[in-house]
Amino acid sequence: MHKILSKRKLSPNVTRLDVLAERIAAIRLPGQFVIVRRGEGAERIPLTIADSDAKAGSIALVIQAVGKSTRELVALEEGESIQDISGPLGRPTELIESGHALCVGGGVGTAVVHPIAQGLFRRGVRVTSVIGGRSKEWVIFEEELRRLGEVVVCTDDGSYGRKGFVTDAVKDLLAAGGVDVVYAIGPVPMMRAVAELTRPASLHTSVSLNPVMVDGTGMCGGCRVSIGGETKFACVDGPEFDGHQVDFDLLADRLSIYRPQEQKSLARHGEACLIGLEKPKGA
């Protein structure tokens, strides 16, 4: 059992849980993830380790509540426990040793790019982060990233920072020159757009893929992706790959394949919650 040490809401549907996982906190590296199971019979959910505290023996999990299982997970409170956390899994990020790194985070992907920026900063690499959200309330991890370097904030509606998409800011920063590598993590359209911006200059661009994943060992085959025409498994070969080699069309198709089942499960979950809120007869 992994006790929840703290809980904090970062945006309308994103929650940070700091949980006790001493062995994972001691050895995790940037880019690695864990697979979480709330309790017996619950769905297994892959989550990036957004931060860790080896002294406290804790890791930070940032969860976007979009389906039944993630909503159940963020419903847990401080003092309660998550039954299983397996990890660290996946290959660590390949970090440059020197130079200027551009870290691009879209939505909850900003939490995923944070440990990469941390690792780069600790090596003495100059870090510029471009992060975005629909509006100010959707922007996360800005304070944490500002400790590591310059941060450019973008919002779709212009309510905070620069108005527009993160790709607009990335385009300007690339035009200014001096960027040695790009790490882009967020929605598939965003990662694809960033990769297309860097392709003409052959500027190495690392993206983190999030296909359907079950066991995290490569045995189920659910997380297979196409990289440079070859089949890879995100859980053991990734989750990070060369953005110029990713078949984003296939990735998008695989991400939507279980959408009808997910919607049915969420609908049943909503009905169950409503039943639980009903007053018993005679009350």
Key phrases:
single chain; alpha/beta; Elongation Factor Tu (Ef-tu), domain 3; Rossmann fold; seven-stranded antiparallel sheet; 16 strands; disordered C terminus
What would your notes on this structure say?
With 283 residues, the chain is an alpha/beta fold. The chain has three domains: 2-89, Beta Barrel (Elongation Factor Tu (Ef-tu), domain 3); 93-208, Rossmann fold (3-Layer(aba) Sandwich), CATH 3.40.50.80; 211-257, no CATH class. 30% of the residues lie in helices and 32% in strands. The protein has helices spanning 22-27, 68-74, 109-122, 142-146, 166-176, 188-198, 234-237, 248-256, 259-277, and strands spanning 2-11, 14-20, 33-37, 44-53, 58-64, 81-82, 84-89, 100-106, 126-133, 150-155, 162-163, 181-185, 205-208, 224-227, 230-233, 240-242. β9, α4 and β10 (150-155) form a beta-alpha-beta unit. It is globular. The model is unreliable at 272-283 (pLDDT under 50).
